[in-house]
Amino acid sequence: MKGRLALFVVSLCLGLILLGCDNRSGGQGAPGATLSQLAGGGSPVGQGDSGWLGELLGYVVLPFLLEGALLAVQISVLAMAGGVLLGLGLALMRLSSYAPIRVVAWIYIWFVRGTPQLLQLVFLYDALPGIGIKLDTFTTAVIGFALNEAAFSAEIIRGGILSVNRNQTVAAASLGMGPLLALRRIILPQAMRAILPGMANDSIGMIKGTSIASVIFVNELTFRSQQIVGQNFKFFTVFAAAGVIYLMLTSAISLAQSLLEHRFNHELEPSARGASSWRRFVGWGPSWLPGRVAAGAALPAGVVGTAPAIAAPRPETAAERSAHGLLWREHLLAASAPQADDEGRPFVACYNVCKSYGGREVLRNLDLTVKRGEVVTIIGPSGSGKSTLLRLINHLEHVDWGDIKIDGQYVGYEKHGPSMRPVGDLAKARADARIGMVFQQFNLFNHFTAVQNISEAPVQVYGEDPKKARNLALSLLASVGLARHADHLPHRLSGGQQQRVAIARALAISPRLMLFDEPTSALDPELVGEVLAVIRRLAEAGMTMIVVTHEIRFAREVADRVVFMDEGSIVEEGTPAEVLDNPKEERTQRFLRMVERAETVVDA
Amino acid sequence: MVRSKLLFAVAVVLGSSAVMLGTVPAARAADPPKCEPDKLAAKYPSLVGKKVIIGQDGESPPYSYRDPKDFNNIIGADADMVRAAFKCIGGQFEFKLGGWSGLLPAVIAGQADVMWDNLYFTTERAKQVDYVIYMLAGTGALVKKGNPKNITSMDTTCGLTATAGLGTVEEAAFRDQSEKCKAAGKATINILTYPDIPAGTRLIQNDRADILLSDLAIVDQLSENNPAVFQRGFKVVSDFKIGVAMKKGNEDLLKALADALTVLQAEGVQKKIYEQYKLDPALMQPIAIQR
């Protein structure tokens, strides 16, 4: 806020200097024309002689009007600050899962947006004294405009939050991030691009709109200019001068908007975000401005940058493998080292799990166990409940009925009679469980570079030293063959590269269990191999994994056990040789025939 | 229009006083008031140490407007009367400037103590506030130079476009007249309201309205200062009284202002101020408290 105020002042001064020069060159009276000259009694209304420009400029620099402008700015800055904070709260209330909270926020917004602001101001100023609350003019204006702005900004912020893909929230949750942390670090920074233009509109509207507060004795710019006009009837020059002052103030807001939009433009590499906002503001700029060089360089870099991304991945060098492979393997094995007392106990144990969505049964009475170090692949047709099962295991969604334990512990549930009830701090439970998850659509945080994506959870959730986390992230990136892409944003990486970053991100929380939800389904066929290679190496390292996949060949190669699911239950399970080569069940055979046919088409 | 209705609604809701009407002579023959600023504590104890807040709009010459020589200074007939009155009372005061239509609600709510800004007496307003009457209202019609529509009385305004201040008695007068036109089988009046006098004069200047009805002194000053643009169509010295208004229950303040105004009128100070601002001294009214 302070910075914004400083911006106003700077732009105002600049504008005044420019106008001052203009005035002198025109020779139409000194900028500081005396008031008696300006007011010049008895002149006819709407005079048209050549002195009007000097007169107008004299009003622009008139302290009496500038004080009014300052008052408008002070009220607007404070009211915007308060209004945006309140608006954020209201927006979150509107998005709450509890209906009463949603309703309260809705009613507030409905009422405040739906009643005239003039009435609200008069009410605050003239009705509250009736119950013993007597606010002064300035406070009333700030509170009145803030309460009003809260309603409008709540909807703008809510729109911004909704514009961020829900996948981002799911990915944050899978890393153990709580709702507020995810909001602050993941959602809001990405929502800002959608929020900023609306906020700038509101700021500009408010600066100009403070004039209605004259009814509660706020002597701001418009009211002061009306008073001058009331006294000398020179409405053209006085109102034009007020217009010039307003234009300077609102230009400052437009400039601030431009700066902030650049700051929150996550399609620009972090290095390019420092570019001059002047060029963006006016659309052009002299070549010596730093922004021009930076912005000019950004385009070819972007074009060139996509070339290696599309090309086949660079094979990991032997040096990289030896340098990073060890650190990586140590990191993983430290987390999944077996306890002495758990011999024979399943690591993942699902008993009688049921789940429905709106009356449609997705999982019915499902039992599944996974031993420590075991790799289980789940195959089955679309809609058979495979992905839902994974989301229940790391408690991204609640089970309706049944029992899921990881290493003998519930993840975010407490036993309540025969059923399980979710605990309050679900995020902490997820973080403690250390279950890594990889999604079909990668779900990388779009505003973070590859290395930031990986170090985010270790630093923000597990409180690790940022430097250490970055080193770990770099070594994980190297281990998936992406050392050279550490500072690239996700949109500059190919699908395969993004998925490898996503795997590294999941590995960074030292997972004891990795869940893969169709990790190669969204990839072009030629990129599937690089991702499967990484998963294969994890299997070799002894990671406990559940992989939902359509890659039958991969399942055969990497799985200890294959599970075939259909219509919410397990139809058949066993070794790859049993299930894939000699399926007993008719449904399994039919599914495998269909998949084989599809693979043949792809191969051809 | 909406604004005046809203403000009026607020004013009505806030009010709690009963209807009290009646004129009480402020000055008793046996005990003529005097200016005794030293005796403030004895005469008006509740005003001791109190800064009385005077609500004015600061944009209505010749009553209340910015001094062309120093915009931070408020001058005008009403403003100068305030100064003279408080000099006589010996109390302290402060001007608070706001839009005219917000002044009365502020007085009723206690955000200002006095509205001293060319306020007409109406029984509706007197339900909320007490008045000290000091002047009779003259109403003037401002028209374009040459009076192209030949406007000579309210009866000649049927079918024309007329403008008056938001929430003023002039606005109400046009509405009455419009009904009369309708009853007489003539075209109704198209009424525009303006937020401040300069805005109203622009309506006349740009031929957006044919007649502006406002206080006589304002209209006279406008036509005198802009003889090439405006002239006065007609004038009506109405029976509207103008007074200083304050919330009911401020007996010391009411008495202090009535006493002071009585002295100012008796000693010719009011007349002098009116002549200075080219107001017709014939409009002065005997000072009286009216509830």
Describe the structure.
Chain A is built from 23 helices and twelve strands. With 604 residues, chain A is α/β, with parallel strands linked by helices. In chain A, α18 packs across α19. In chain B, strands 1, 2, 6, 7, 8, 9, 10, 11, 12 and 13 form a ten-stranded mixed sheet that branches. The longest helix of chain B has 16 residues. Chains A and B meet through α2, α6 and α10 of A and α1, β3, β5, α4 and α7 of B.
Summed up:
The complex is a heterodimer of chains A (604) and B (291). Chain A is of the alpha/beta class.
Oligomer: heterodimer
Main beta sheet of chain A, described?
6 strands, mixed
pLDDT < 50 stretches of chain B: 1-24, 26-30
Helix content of chain A: 55-70%
Mean pLDDT of chain B: 86
Number of DSSP helices of chain A? 23
- On the 0-100 scale, what is the average pLDDT of chain A? 81
Indicate the percent of residues in helices of chain B.
25-40%
Largest inter-chain contact set: A-B, 39 and 44 residues
Order of helices and strands of chain B: HEHEEEEHEHEHEEHEHEHEHHE
Total helical segments of chain B: 10
Q: What's the shape of chain A?
A: elongated
The total strand number of chain A stands at 12
Taking all Cα atoms into account, the compactness measure Rg of chain B is 19 Å
Percent of residues of chain A in beta strands?
Answer: 5-15%
Q: In order across it, which strands form the biggest sheet of chain A?
A: 8-9-10-3-11-12
Q: Could you list some keywords that capture this structure?
A:
heterodimer; A: about 600 residues; alpha/beta; about 60% helix; about 10% strand; elongated; disordered N terminus; B: about 290 residues; 10-stranded mixed sheet; 3-stranded antiparallel sheet
